[in-house]
Write a structure and sequence with these properties.
3 helices, single chain, binds FE2/S2 (inorganic) cluster, alpha+beta, Ubiquitin-like (UB roll), globular, 18% helix, 112 residues, 5-stranded mixed β-sheet, 5 strands
Amino acid sequence: MSDPIRVRFVDGDEFEAAIGDSILDVALAHGIDLDHACGGVCACSTCHVRIVEGADALNESSDDEEDQLDEARDVGLDSRLGCQAKILRAPAGGVIAVRIPSWNVNLVREAH
Ligand code: FES
């Protein structure tokens, strides 16, 4: 059996995840209040996250996802929509590290 896949929220906790989980799934399953205004159907950009490490474990972003990210704040090359970034395989570095952009951090802190 392979090692469990780990997702770490930068400045936060580290959780186990499974192939097929989205970053949003992992966050919500562990009480991290990542915003998701459209319910995870790629129709907003409120679930925007930055993948600091382990992007090799995730699916490629779609054109629809890129279009939504164009609307998001604090976007970079490592930006993904949490609901669309799905885990396909174990990351080479052992962990997927996720940063929630600073304008969303207050939400996360309030959840704890
Ligand atoms: S929750 Fe709306 S795009 Fe992810």
